[in-house]
Amino acid sequence: MKKGIYKQLHLLHLEAALPQVLDQARTQQWTYETFLERALGSELDGREQKALARRLKAARIPAKKTLDGFEFSFQPSPCERRLRELADLSFVRSCTNLVFLGPPGTGKTHLSLALADRALSQGYSVLFTTLADLARTLESASHPGLVRQRLRRYIAPSLLVIDEVGYTRLSQEQAHQFFELVAARYEHGSIILTSNTSFAGWGRLLGGDEVLATALLDRLLHHAEVISINGRSYRMKERQEDRVDEAAWREEPSGTAGARSPGVGQVGVGIS
Ligand code: ADP
Ligand code: MG
Q: Is the CB of residue 186 below 6 angstroms from any atom belonging to ligand 1?
């Protein structure tokens, strides 16, 4: 084989996979057609994996979460069937927004991340940010050209997740920049947004500007689905379970305590 041919043709994944593909071809006596299909398929697989890794890095996802990892039995108010339907991502294709509303610990970020993960695996570009980070990034731009450039970063992805709306009160300038972003994505790209604050309180969050809040909500909610979660905090559940674990650990006779994982006890002590 001519040296460097794979490089010239940009077939580096095929080059890496070829020894194994050839091996299989010989042992399984593939036809020429099967061999060609598998060899080119290995190049395609390699490219797709590389593209996924690139999208994943650009998405700044803080943790991997899945719908399968969500205990709907603990938190029945987001309808499982509806969330599984949303995982088909038609909301991304139709540029529809999703808003998860509810108190802390009820799984808003988890469900947003699960849908974002699904979008990434289906080839969509995604960006995750908290509102506080978004506001800081835009406000710290030293001149209007840089603000526009940074805004484009949030406008470009097919899906933008804006987490934790409600924990930070924005200044008037930050609120205007947030409005600009929502307006720019309106009917162009989906937003998943999470908030612990009902819409009536958004004027206070957005620099005290009720007119701006109304205009922003108008665009955000025109094509949107609002999913309210009105349950208990999963974080509190885990804390309570840790406490029960810790108590059991303490009550065990000294000779057997060492048999348990020391990590369980340490977690309990650390947070109590
Ligand atoms: P929120 O964004 O509403 O404050 P999170 O989504 O951050 O809550 O949830 C807090 C933690 O609890 C996360 O680690 C999340 O994965 C987990 N969690 C929340 N609800 C559930 C659930 N119903 N099933 C499994 N894990 C959950
Ligand atoms: Mg959250």
A: no
| Complete edge-to-edge strand list for the sheet that includes strand 190-195 | 126-130, 159-165, 190-195, 97-101, 224-228
Task: Give all domains of the chain, ordered by start, each with its CATH number.
Answer: 5-58 (no CATH), 80-228 (3.40.50.300), 234-271 (no CATH)
Considering every ligand atom shown, identify the ligand nearest to the alpha carbon of residue 128 and give its number.
2
Q: Please tell me the distance from the alpha carbon of residue 160 to that of residue 157, in angstroms, as a whole number.
A: 6
Q: Is the pLDDT of residue 239 over 70?
A: yes
Bridge partner residues of 130 (DSSP)? 163
Phi, psi of 147 (to 5 degrees): -60, -45
User: By the 8 A CB rule, do 195 and 165 touch?
Assistant: yes
Number of Cα atoms under 13 Å in the Cβ half of residue 106: 20
Give the number of the ligand closest to the Cα of residue 101.
1
> Residues 50, 138, 160, 99: what is their CA dihedral angle, to the nearest 10 degrees?
160
- The CB of 241 under 6 Å from ligand 1? The reply is no
This prediction has a pTM of 0.84
Q: CA 195 to CA 191: how far, in whole Å?
A: 13
pLDDT above 80: residue 62: yes
Q: What angle do CA 167, 172, 177 make, to 5 degrees?
A: 85
